[in-house]
């Protein structure tokens, strides 16, 4: 059997950041700092090129302008790298989860009900009501919400763990930052 060290990217340690594009970086900064509770760490930009650098390195239109990017730290987990672009043929509507390239970002919270009430006080659109998971995810509650620009986020909480942990040697991300690898019982 092949060891886990011979598969995948050599030296992989973890997810360092998640990057995404927003329509208004200042408004997104206010949302991430004032509503979510992140800390802005630093900014870069603008970036543009008369050649093909933007297309070759970033897979965007060659004349796209990255007005600015900002890095945020949001408690325990990967950093956020948030971009604002000006580009020809830019799609202004975020994809749905069911679209190719669709995605959402899940934020772990200690008290789901308290976190949902906080978002509602800030006028954030909550999608449905908190849902109790079943099967391997039993023990988890979750709810989706939309940012002011329509990007999907999720709040999750599983303070007593998830059912799969009783029989799996591998643990998914844990709120204490520890990824325990245990032998199945």
SSE map:
Blueprint: E1 17-21, H1 25-36, E2 39-44, H2 53-58, E3 65-73, E4 79-86, E5 105-108, H3 112-121, E6 125-132, E7 141-146, E8 152-157
Parallel strand pairs: 1-4, 5-8
Antiparallel strand pairs: 2-3, 3-4, 6-7, 7-8
CA distance, first residue to last residue: 22 Å
- List how many beta strands DSSP finds: 8
Overall average pLDDT:
92
Question: SS-based structural class?
Answer: alpha/beta
Number of helices: 3
Strand-residue proportion = 25-35%
Give the low-pLDDT segments: none
Share in helix: 10-25%
Radius of gyration: 19 Å
Order of secondary-structure elements: EHEHEEEHEEE
As laid out across the biggest beta sheet, the strand order is: 1-4-3-2
The dominant shape is globular
Structural write-up:
This protein is an alpha/beta fold. The chain is about 15% helix and about 30% strand. The chain contains 3 helices and 8 strands; from the N terminus they run βαβαβββαβββ. The strands form 2 sheets. Strands 1-4-3-2 form a 4-stranded mixed sheet. A hairpin with a 5-residue loop joins strand 7 and strand 8 (about 150-155). The protein starts with 16 loop residues before the first strand and ends in a 28-residue tail after the last strand.
